[in-house]
Automatic annotation (TrEMBL):
Binds 1 [4Fe-4S] cluster. The cluster is coordinated with 3 cysteines and an exchangeable S-adenosyl-L-methionine. Belongs to the radical SAM superfamily. 7-carboxy-7-deazaguanine synthase family. Catalyzes the complex heterocyclic radical-mediated conversion of 6-carboxy-5,6,7,8-tetrahydropterin (CPH4) to 7-carboxy-7-deazaguanine (CDG), a step common to the biosynthetic pathways of all 7-deazapurine-containing compounds. GO terms for molecular function: 4 iron, 4 sulfur cluster binding; carbon-nitrogen lyase activity; magnesium ion binding; S-adenosyl-L-methionine binding. This is 7-carboxy-7-deazaguanine synthase. Pathway: Purine metabolism; 7-cyano-7-deazaguanine biosynthesis. Substrate binds at residues 25-27, 40, 84, 210. It comes from Flavobacterium commune.
Length: 210
């Protein structure tokens, strides 16, 4: 149980449940292959059964950390920071992104969009999930739509989501890692037949990096 004082700091976004932070190569989507400092925030109630970071779901397992500490660490590395989770929009991102921008950092987010958008972002990667669909604010602001393909029905879901996201968003289909051998050929065929889409792969896993 958090003290009342710490809970107030968490509520306003001055402290966040930090799971991990690390400097690596972006493995997915539009910015694949570029250096970035990842900040993984704990807490998610979307509950994808194939999630590869289920340890991020319970925010209580990850200690509330001052955003000053988070920003100081991030500013030592690349000029791009990626906020991920968990589901980072569970929390108010306004203070964190403001402080990161004060350090002249580019600030990206990877989100399911399940909660309203908060914060100031240079790039928003929306990866919608069937369990809890995105809010209108994230559909409207997303720069990139990345749909995870776990089975054939997910192509239908992808098209439904493409209809809802703003028309400027770049569209990606990405195989779920455990189904990559089965789904990747189907994604390749689908993109060739529907060239508004692009293929995204989890290249960091092929490279054996975080």
């Amino acid at each position: 149980m958090l003290s009342k004082e710490i809970q107030l700091e968490v509520n306003k976004g001055a402290m966040l449940p930090l799971m991990e932070e690390f400097y690596t190569i972006q493995g997915e989507g539009f910015h694949t292959g570029t250096a970035a400092y990842f900040i993984r925030i704990g807490g998610c109630d979307v509950g994808c059964h194939w999630c590869d970071v289920k340890e991020s779901w319970n925010a209580e397992l990850h200690p509330p950390t001052s955003i000053d500490h988070i920003v100081d660490n991030a500013s030592k590395y690349a000029d791009t920071v990626v906020i991920t989770g968990g589901e980072p929009l569970t929390w108010d991102m306004s203070l964190l992104t403001s402080r990161l921008k004060d350090k002249n950092l580019k600030v990206h987010i990877e989100t399911s969009g399940a909660y309203p958008l908060s914060g100031t972002w240079d790039w928003i990667c929306l990866s919608p999930k069937k369990n809890k669909l995105p809010t209108e604010t994230v559909y409207n602001a997303a720069h990139e739509l990345k749909v995870i393909i776990h089975n054939k029905h997910d192509f239908i879901f992808a098209e439904e989501q493409a209809e809802l996201v703003n028309h400027k968003a770049i569209l990606f289909l990405q195989p779920e890692w455990s189904k990559k051998e089965e789904m990747t050929p189907l994604i390749v065929e689908y993109v060739m037949n529907n060239p508004k889409w692009r293929v995204s792969l989890q290249t960091h896993k092929y490279l054996n990096i975080p």
